[in-house]
Design a protein that fits this description.
Elements: H1 7-18, H2 21-39, H3 47-58, H4 63-75, E1 83-91, E2 95-103, H5 106-119, E3 123-124, E4 134-143, H6 151-161, E5 165-168, E6 172-177, H7 182-191, E7 198-205, H8 214-229, E8 233-238
Antiparallel strand pairs: 1-2, 1-3, 2-8, 4-6, 4-7, 5-6
């Protein structure tokens, strides 16, 4: 999703999400429920909830919708029964795919995810079979057109706040952090008024795979499209060089 100038793909994904805000908001609502259940309704004392709120705002979720979600989750905290589940597998052309889901029925979700892979000529593997090919990192993407700060100043601000790396692409800046330092770096940049296209802890491929052949490309796209349409699926990571 990031890496060597994946900003165009991020913008494309955001546009697709904008066309399906209902599903995006539902997914984030589930993440709010999980965060409130685990750490309480006060973002000041719940770093996971702060992260979800930042994600919600990046997806243009209205503040009152966020507040309603937190209050609802706090009132129903004993009844929130979503579980976080992760699946790993292989797509056509040797691609690696990780699927994060939030579900109230693991059997249903497992069957649906397995079906997505099989319909696209892929296969589900065991836990850890592909995740070793990814690094878990905090990642912040900033659109150059929306950033008034000079690149050197932005880099120094990010590094001073605890970022691991800063890179400049043709149309964007990318900042990576250790997951434990992500919130501090993000909050420091927010205090400077920096607009972020993407800010989240994510799985970044160590290397990318080029898929050759129309059949493999079509099947891989089928897997990704079917996963995106599944209501339980929250995030899909892959190492396909689109």
């Amino acid at each position: 999703m990031s890496g060597h100038s994946k900003f165009a793909n991020i913008k494309h994904k955001k546009e697709k999400n904008d066309a399906a805000k209902g599903k995006t908001f539902t997914m984030i609502g589930r993440e709010i429920a999980i965060a409130v259940k685990e750490g309480g309704p006060d973002p000041a004392n719940n770093s996971k909830l702060r992260d979800v709120i930042a994600k919600a705002k990046a997806n243009n979720m209205p503040n009152d919708t966020i507040d309603r979600g937190i209050k609802k989750a706090a009132g129903d905290s004993g009844n929130v029964n979503y579980e976080v589940v992760t699946y790993e597998g292989y797509g056509p052309g040797g691609t690696a795919i990780i699927v994060d889901a939030l579900t109230d029925n693991k059997n249903r979700t497992a069957a649906n995810v397995r079906n997505c892979f099989s319909k696209g000529q892929g296969s589900i593997g065991t836990q850890g079979c592909v995740s070793y090919m990814f690094d878990k990192k905090g990642q912040i993407i900033i659109d150059k057109e929306e950033c008034d700060m000079e690149a050197d100043d932005l880099m120094m601000s990010a590094l001073d706040a605890g970022a691991e790396d800063f890179s400049e692409e043709e149309d964007s800046f990318e900042i990576t952090t250790d997951p434990a330092d992500f919130a501090a770096v993000r909050d420091a940049l927010l205090e400077l008024g920096i607009a972020m296209t993407q800010a989240e802890v994510t799985m970044i491929p160590q290397t990318y795979v080029t898929v050759e052949g129309e059949a493999d490309l079509a099947n891989l796209q089928k897997i990704l499209d079917m996963l995106e349409e599944d209501d339980d699926v929250q995030t899909v990571y892959h190492n396909w060089d689109e």
